[in-house]
Amino acid sequence: MGEENKVVLHGMWISPYSKRVELALKFKGIPFEYVEEDLQNKSPQLLQYNPVHKKVPVLVHNGKPIAESIVILEYIDETWKNQPRFLPQDPYKRAKVRFWTSFVQQQLCESLLTVIKTDGEVQQKAFGNLFEKLEVLEEGIKEIFPDGNPCIGNYNIGLLDLVMLSMFSPNNKIQEEVFGMKIIDPEKTPLIFSWLTVLHQLPLVKESTPPDDKVVAIFKFVRENALKSSLA
Amino acid sequence: MEDEVVLLDFWPSSFAMRVKIALGEKGIKYECKQEDLFNKSPLLLEMNPIHKKIPVLIHNGKPISESLVIVQYIDYVWNHKSPLLPSDPYQRSQALFWADYIDKKIYGGVGKRIWMGKEDQEEAKEELMQSLKTVEVVLGDKLYFGGESIGYVDVALVPFTSWFYTFETCGNFSIEARCPNIISWAKRCKENESVSKALPDPREVYGYVLQLKKRLGLE
Fold this sequence. Notes:
The complex is a heterodimer of chains A (232) and B (219).
Chain A: E1 7-11, H1 16-28, E2 33-36, H2 44-49, E3 58-61, E4 64-67, H3 69-79, H4 91-117, H5 120-140, H6 159-167, H7 172-179, H8 190-201, H9 203-207, H10 212-231
Helix pairs in contact in A: 1-3, 1-6, 4-5, 4-6, 7-10
Chain B: E1 5-9, H1 14-26, E2 31-34, H2 42-47, E3 56-59, E4 62-65, H3 67-77, H4 89-105, H5 110-116, H6 121-139, H7 152-157, H8 164-171, H9 175-178, H10 180-190, H11 193-198, H12 202-215
Parallel strand pairs in B: 1-2
Antiparallel strand pairs in B: 1-3, 3-4
């Protein structure tokens, strides 16, 4: 790859924030170099490219770094204007997508992480919070899917899809194994369930999803570490 | 056809001030409706049922919530003057990054911990100072974060400065002592009508907080 248009992604395979950027690049057909970061031993480049947060993902385009996953996704969409476009052209629809993306990122992801990293009463409360927020989203996205369930043909992946699918999946088997219950219940939140099913069946998403047992192992690992450090 | 623009506002809210500055920069005429956050209007509950918060911009009957989403909307729709975001994608990404930083590290609750005056006040003061120092470095010797004129990051941050007097008084410290360039930048911003009209008198903000503390049983 020449210096012209050199794209490097510093990521970590477990991180959903990193995953969404990886998928965005793949969906746009942008060739890139991937650097797997060890978060216990961050590379000097990562610390140089993201001195403020020292986190993944960081996209480096022609030597210039961009951090924060959603900022990166918007940058990708503006720089590579080919399909799929991640944001609608209509200003009102654009604002709606940004609003729901912010909701998923700040409220849903926060609740899910609390559920994963805690136990006992704190976890119970977090579950309640998470299900409440999922119901709000279920109602809210009726605007985005006015004709009911989304279908797979010619699906134009966008900002909200990328943020949602990197954090949530319709795989009830994994959810039951890790949490003892369904998180994305086809009966309680049917629209979210069918939306995530469509997203996770897209070939590019399917091929970058690790096998079930690896995903379960990740959750358990993150959970154990969090519970251990909260006892320290 | 005339655009109908309504803003659901609460005058001490830094989030709402962002929207007022953006509307001012673009020269947009709008109706400003004050909300009582202890007694929210049916209009607010209808226009922002999810968060029930201000600011809400209602453009020709359609509501938009979340202050920075609204500012981006305004910039996109009224793109004929005073662009707030740079057109270059990389410069844009940097502006979005710093606004996100400001949201997380400065607007994210550190102020409340200072004026509430509880055990975590000292820690909160230090956190605020560190974050302001970080953005002060980003400003460098530019007139504004946006360069020669007010931009997205200026709009995101300057409202918060109307609360500095409250923090300094409740926390007994001086922000100017550690971040003089932020203070001079804020003064420069206020020379712009869009900012001076949107920001309340800091002493009035302090008066509001004293009332709030009484209401919360903290005085």
